[in-house]
Amino acid sequence: MRMREYKFAGKSVESGLWVYGRVFKINETGDHFITPFDSKIFEGTINYEYYFQLKCIKVIPESVGQYTGLKDINGTKIYEGDIVIAKSKGSDTAHTIVVSWIETEACYNISPGYQMCVIKYEVIGNKCDNPELLEVE
């Protein structure tokens, strides 16, 4: 059985840089944070009790997306919210798509909305940094 990689991306509120790791949300405030996988900054025992402290980076909630488990033709990991160009087998037609989660089908939408055998994806941006890529001419 293949283990899924639970990894998230989000854009830092403070620096504007993308961070990757585990995500959590504070329900009372709606704030979202990502804890990078290598973020343990303290670990030890105090009075025989185990403690650890993690680095948490506040991120823009709308920027948070989960890793799909897929990579594009360049080896770039594809996250929810990424904008990809999808090309189908036997066709020169390319479709620009925002990767999104479909709750009712428990899968990621990474096709143009109809039956299509997509064989090539290329990440060209994301909905947070590159909304202009989604504008229809």
From TrEMBL:
InterPro entries referenced in this protein's UniProt entry, alphabetically: YopX-like_C, YopX_protein
SUPFAM superfamilies: YopX-like
Taxonomic classification: Bacteria, Bacillati, Bacillota, Culicoidibacteria, Culicoidibacterales
Protein name according to UniProt: YopX protein domain-containing protein
Annotated ranges, domain YopX protein: 35-135
Lineage top rank: taxon: Bacteria
